[in-house]
């Protein structure tokens, strides 16, 4: 058992399936009280019933108050897991403003709004934990999906800012950055996901394992795919070489579409 989460009051957004459901199950198994949030009320209810948790359906940006009430007035851990993937953004394609707006709202602003609502209480009492499901795309990038790549960089930057700003005041922050995970989002990623992500895809439960190991070690950056650390170092050390390598992947993908 991880002592830091035993008895904690936890909210997991986007927990009707995939990584979110795996996190909700793991927190519940560790003795936490869990609110399961998802836009799909039926899926959220199924997970909540399975783990003996509470269900709060709806947009992750607007459920802090309801989730807090369901947990008796306070939240100890917020898992900002809900996310969307949108392709497009290539020159010559029609610019879909709605895809960019939705990606920004769900992948970044939902995190900002939750933190804004939670921080006053956390700072007053000197404790709180914010878990941001980002993606390796937030450290590197992903071919074929400009809105997802750009907003996941934003999600990582916000988590990093939270950590450096509030860690001395008792707020713990974790940024989870996996590559491919066997979820509905991966299935919907098309040929780009098939090429780049599926060959090394892991189970959602592996992501939960990595998070809990990171909680025990008090680490900010959670890498369920350890090789991402080397890719990140290579990107920083020699951006031109790294971009050239990624362009080769892009060209390979273009030949398969």
UniProtKB/TrEMBL annotation:
Identification of the protein by name: SDR family oxidoreductase
Leader sequence segment: none
Family listed: Belongs to the short-chain dehydrogenases/reductases (SDR) family.
Keyword hit for Oxidoreductase: yes
CDD domains referenced in this protein's UniProt entry, alphabetically: SDR_c (cd05233)
Naturally occurring in which organism (per UniProt): Streptomyces erythrogriseus
PROSITE patterns: ADH_SHORT
Gene3D superfamilies assigned to the protein according to its UniProt record, in alphabetical order: NAD(P)-binding Rossmann-like Domain (3.40.50.720)
Pfam families the record matches: adh_short (PF00106)
InterPro entries linked to this entry: NAD(P)-bd_dom_sf (IPR036291), Sc_DH/Rdtase_CS (IPR020904), SDR_fam (IPR002347)
Keywords: Oxidoreductase
């Amino acid at each position: 058992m991880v002592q830091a989460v035993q008895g904690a009051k936890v909210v997991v957004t986007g927990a009707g399936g995939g990584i979110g459901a795996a996190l909700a199950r793991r927190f519940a198994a560790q003795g936490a009280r869990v609110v399961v949030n998802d836009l799909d009320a039926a899926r959220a209810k199924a997970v909540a019933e399975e783990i003996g948790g509470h269900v709060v359906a709806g947009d992750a940006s607007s459920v802090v108050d309801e989730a807090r009430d369901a947990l008796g007035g306070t939240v100890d851990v917020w898992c900002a897991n809900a996310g969307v993937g949108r392709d497009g953004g290539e020159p010559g394609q029609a610019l879909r403003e709605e895809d960019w707006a939705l990606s920004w709202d769900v992948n970044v602003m939902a995190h900002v709004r939750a933190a804004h609502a939670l921080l006053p209480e956390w700072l007053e009492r000197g404790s709180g934990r914010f878990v941001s499901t980002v993606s390796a795309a937030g450290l590197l990038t992903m071919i074929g999906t400009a809105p997802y790549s750009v907003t996941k960089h934003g999600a990582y930057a916000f988590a990093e800012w939270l950590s450096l700003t509030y860690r001395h005041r008792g707020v713990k922050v974790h940024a989870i950055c996996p590559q491919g995970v066997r979820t509905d989002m991966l299935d919907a990623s098309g040929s780009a996901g098939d090429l780049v992500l599926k060959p090394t895809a892991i189970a959602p439960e592996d992501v939960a394992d990595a998070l809990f190991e990171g909680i025990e070690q008090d680490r900010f950056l959670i890498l369920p795919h350890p090789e991402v650390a080397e890719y990140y170092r290579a990107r920083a050390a020699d951006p031109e070489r790294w971009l050239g390598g990624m362009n080769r992947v892009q060209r390979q993908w273009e030949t398969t579409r």
